[in-house]
Structures are given as C-alpha cells and as structure tokens.
Amino acid sequence: MSVYILAIESSCDDTSAAVLHNQRVLSNVIANQQVHAGFGGVVPELASRAHQANIIPVIHQAMKDAGIEKQQIDAIAFTRGPGLLGSLLVGTSFAKSLALGLGKPLIEVDHMQAHILAHFIEKQAPNSRYPGFPFLCLTVSGGHTQIVRIDDYFSMQVIGQTIDDAAGEAFDKAAKIMGLPYPGGPMVDKLGKEGNAEAFRFARPVIAGLDYSFSGLKTSFLYFVRDQLKLNPDFIEQNKADLSASIQKAIVDTLMDKLMKAVELTGIRQVAVAGGVSANSVLRQAFSNREADGEIEAFIPEFRYTTDNAAMIGIAAYFKYLKQDFTDLSAAPYSRSTAR
Length: 340
Hints:
340 residues; Nucleotidyltransferase, domain 5; 5-stranded mixed sheet; alpha/beta
C-alpha cells in the first residue's frame, strides 16, 4: 500500500509540518519561535499567535520539499494533545479545514505516543534496528517523564511517571538559577561537557515503585547555590561547568535507576528513549553504556526526531491509517493525557 500523510505538530512553541510516504520521511519542516527567549520560558499567548503566522508557510514548504501535490495526500494528521491548548487549537483547526477542503480523512495523534513511535520512522543507514514488541520506553521532556510498556503500536501502558515535575523542568530550572539563557537544557548539556560531574553531590529522590520526583532535586540545587553565593558572590560564574555536570548526573542517574528497575521487574530488555531530553548527551551515553554492559538492547532516536516535530506525528498517523482509524471534525484538543 502506498500512503502519503501530511502531518501537523503545534503542541508547544514549534510549528512543524511533514510529509511521509509510508514510513519514509519526505520532508520535515520546523519553525522555531525565538520570541520566548527573553521571557525565560514559553508564553502560551505568544506561542499561539506565532503558530498562526507560521503554519501556512511551514506546510507550503513541507509540500514543496516533499515534491508532491496536495491531491496526492491520502490523509491529514494533527497533534490533538497533550500540550498548550491555544497552540493545539491552531494546528487542530487548520488540519480540520484542510481535510474538509481536500475531502481527505483526518487522523488525530497523541503527542507522547508519537514520540515513542518515532523509533519506527524508516532509517537510511544500513543494518538499522527497530524495537520489537514488547519494549520499554523512557519518554522524557520538559513536560513529561514516563516509563511506558509498549505491546503494540497503540497498546501502551504507563508503568511509571513523575509525581510532580518533569526531568526537563529540572534541567531548565537549574539553568535559570545559573543565569543561562532559555532553553536551558541544551546549555547545561554543553557546559557539563567541560565540568566534573563529581564536583557536587545532590540528593537523589527516593520514591516507591517506578515513579519519579524531581521537585526535591530542584529545591536542593536552589538552596545549595543560594548558600554558596552567601559565601562567594562569584560562585556560579566560577563553577558553572561543574554545577552543570553535577546536576546533569543527578538527573540522569535518577532516570536510569528507575528505568533499570523496570527492566528487572518486567524482564523486558529492549529499551528505547524518546522526547526532547533524549537529545541530552549524558542520557544517550548512559543508554549506550548499559547496552555495552549487556544489560539492555538500547534504541536511541536520531537527533532530528528528539524534539517536537511533525515527522513523529506522521509515523503515528501512518499506523492509524492502516487500521482506518480516522477522526471526525468534532475532535477537540486536550491539554493533558489521562493515560496511566
């Protein structure tokens, strides 16, 4: 079967459109929103306005890059949630209008499921590997931290998740405390490469089962830096690299400890990572190290599919298309996923 999917992603502050032919990505265009940098985080109202300005040129460029005409599209896919409601409304409304105008079926996609299914995008490298069912996936981003058991493309069970803040929030909070520009996670990663991860010790949260907690770690980092600044006003500037490396190690160790506990409890050794924080070099290395030690078979996404992008929406929609799982025009976006 030959299927062309036009996918739209607008869950947060990136406007993205992609065209897929079956599992192969023909184009994947992303418009970033620089307007939020001065505010130290995403401003929802500004994000939705930027999506309105970006969505038409982004879709036009995606179609042009893919080299196909709109009549060749078999279905229109969009992110229904979770995410910022204002941003989701822009993508949802445009997808509905386009599907109605072209007379094409509409496919809704859950953002977090799409991050996981990005592992099934066709790879160009020879001897490429794909996860087999069942497998575990650590989905970790600015808004989510979950351990998910995947038994089929759409049979997923969250077996562990954060009870408060996400790991990505911990990265961004630490960056903000150190005065690093937004987005802070990549800056912490960059500075951490030059620092000593053993320079400072931050307490790891102790939570029962497979759930996570990062609020205490954020507070511990804040109080430590505050106390050190009382003794040395230049403490942050003199120790940015070591602080970055140390907090990064604490976050990644916490993520991996629970994930390996999940491997032990389930007996599933195929393990993937997905979401924006999967771009973090220390987390990726931790996965590679566990595989080298023979503990797991690791699946790490390509960098271009780690952050929010429409290609991951398209691959999820492709598998839905094969099931003829279409959406009607009454579908409304949702800000939070209720799955557990």
